[in-house]
């Protein structure tokens, strides 16, 4: 049975990984996979109180964490921001841990990827990246539709991700741009559905809130041309008070619109298929992080090398780097709403 060490107790580590793991350990699904011993947690800036039920064991250093854990049967979750990754990976490797999950995006740029792969190779880390939209039931259904050919050839993909991210953008600075927050999720799906791609257009905008200007954190827009001709457009807005995670696939003979769950409040997804003048909608459970963790822990327990998601996530970082370079080199400076002309260059979104 595997134990867990969570490093970084922010949004990802504390509010996503910890509750999902706790739930899985308590459910019948987790039987024989997750140890009942406490989940060890570490964050230099947050030392939570231990829980009365003994489910977590906070530690003051990674060395202290290592003293109570056997690396051969521990999965490490690196939930620090992309800017605080490489040193953490090196430290856990030096302490003997090999089974390591890293939050997305794997890195903020190509240089970071090269350094992460160096650490992986030097220490033979069994590295997996959290790209849980690939484990989503909605993504699986979309993939099945694409490969079945039921609606003919896939022509285009459009993803729209909106949410308010004012407080976290004001309080933290681990993400260099809006490309690093939500876009990696839908980009993983686009690559899974339509294969390799190149960036043909990209733009971003600043966030301005309450007199503060946060560069590049307002919105991000990315257009891809896949090698087999499909066009993908992804638009992510972090200044919206509405939450939405929508994906639309246009086929030769129909259209599919999917909505991923938008928050931890409810883990249902919705999918509508339109073809031959008819429309069918289904709603279903879609707890993708739990599915991802189950699959990954099973792989680690069986001693598998988990590399497939790593390659795809390296590709994601490369495409996002190309998009950022395009923006820096004077691509469109303002991310507009998809399908409309962008506002004038240099304009920022004002929110007060
Ligand atoms: N998969 C998802 O749905 C999802 C959701 C949220 C965030 N994320 C990703 O998770 C990563 C973290 O984002 P977040 O929103 O949780 O950030 P956050 O700022 O909320 O939390 C990061 C935490 O890491 C800690 N930290 C920094 N350096 C550390 C170190 N050297 N050792 C231990 N802890 C350290 C910080 O003190 C902070 O508490 C990002 O890459 C983000 O994109 C993924």
Helix and strand content put the structural class at alpha/beta
The first-to-last residue Cα distance is 51 Å
CATH homology group of the largest domain: Dihydrodipicolinate Reductase, domain 2
Provide the spatial order of strands within the biggest beta sheet: 14-13-12-11-7-10-9-8-15
- Specify the oligomeric state: single chain
In the CATH hierarchy, what is the class of the largest domain?
Alpha Beta
Number of helices: 9
Radius of gyration of CA atoms, rounded to a whole number: 21 Å
CATH architecture of the largest domain: 2-Layer Sandwich
Chain-averaged pLDDT: 90
CATH T-level fold name of the largest domain: Dihydrodipicolinate Reductase, domain 2
| Overall strand count | 15
Protein name: Dehydrogenase
Domain Gfo/Idh/MocA-like oxidoreductase N-terminal: 3-118
Pfam families: GFO_IDH_MocA
Region (Disordered): 331-352
Can you tag this structure with a few keywords?
alpha/beta; Rossmann fold; Dihydrodipicolinate Reductase, domain 2; 2 domains; nine-stranded mixed beta sheet; six-stranded parallel beta sheet; 9 helices; 15 strands; 31% helix; globular; binds nicotinamide-adenine-dinucleotide; Gfo/Idh/MocA_Oxidoreductases; Gfo/Idh/MocA-like_OxRdtase_N; nucleotide binding; Dehydrogenase
Plain-language structure description:
With 352 residues, the protein is an alpha/beta fold. The chain has 2 domains: 3-129, NAD(P)-binding Rossmann-like Domain (Rossmann fold); 133-291 and 306-351, 2-Layer Sandwich (Dihydrodipicolinate Reductase, domain 2). Helices cover 31% and strands 31% of the residues. A 9-stranded mixed beta sheet has the order 14-13-12-11-7-10-9-8-15. Strands 3-2-1-4-5-6 form a 6-stranded parallel beta sheet, with helices on both faces. Helix 1 (11-26) packs across helix 8. The longest helix has 21 residues, at 308-328. The chain is globular and about 60 Å long. The relative contact order is 0.15. Bound molecules: nicotinamide-adenine-dinucleotide (NAD). Nicotinamide-adenine-dinucleotide binds next to helix 1. This is Dehydrogenase. Residues 3-118 form the Gfo/Idh/MocA-like oxidoreductase N-terminal domain. Pfam families: GFO_IDH_MocA.
